[in-house]
Task: structure prediction
Amino acid sequence: MSDLPSPVDYAVPGFIALVLIEMLIVRVKDRRRYCPKDTLTSLMLGFGSSIVGALEGGAVYAMALRVSDFRLFDVPYAWWAWPLCFLLDDLAYYVFHRSAHRVRWFWASHVIHHSSQHYNLSTALRQTWTGFFSMAFLFRLPLFLIGFPPAMVFFCAGLNLIYQFWIHTEVIGRCPRWFEAVMNTPSHHRVHHATNPRYLDKNYAGVFIVWDRMFGSFTPELDADRPRYGLVKNLGRFNILWAAFHEWIGIAKDLWSAPWRAKLGYAFGPPGWSHDGSRETSETIREKWAGRARLNAPNSLVPSAVEGRCSESVPAPLDFARDERTLSA
Result:
């Protein structure tokens, strides 16, 4: 069992096939849903992430084995251990994902996934190149200390990643209410990728949305406030290296120029934090938006953005509530 295959490797052909199918669907509905340059950027970022992951995999697995030497229990490869491992791994992912949006050091790796102003299945392929450097693997260490075999944990993590692929779409509206109550869905994850003030830093779930409901980070998608995707300040270009490393470059510049007492804040504070209050965090953006909403101007505060070269072709999200063809897709 120690040499379990990576389920993601087997899923890649399915990912590509589903992207092509979605392209055909939106070509009929609205071909502007896909921007060729944006899609190519997503594919190249995904390809680069796969290469980096292959190079780092041995080191991560070796560290997992080392940590397992200090395990509290010996969890067997029994039938009951698999769902338990999957559940706890998803909780670990929630903690990681929430930290990746609230701590700039982790955000510097995760931001690559949010860098597209489009929301389609190709967006799911935008994965980090610097996860090892940011030490994202630390969030799964408790599972090894409990006693789950590393191979089991990494296999469950692969299944988790596969599940998250299909929720990156606007083709699917809302799922049945019971499913929306428990599972992460396209509707929930559209909120997570949105830059609307009410949606910033919400819905961190991987598979089970119950974590967000339990820990107060859940917000539903509203028909009256359609998601707008990307970053608070968009990249403005389709440069693959810039997409992968721009936030690390920003951290380096801030650490170089910031006063000594503020340097740690620029690395480990929330994204947008500044020692002099000259920048905006998700909290300050929401506060300003809420203040204007109280003055009868709801939804009027939208984070400023530097538009990408295909941004003029980005329409409003599909009207799920009024288009029965979308709801049944």
Remarks:
- The CA atoms of residues 35 and 220 lie 27 Å apart.
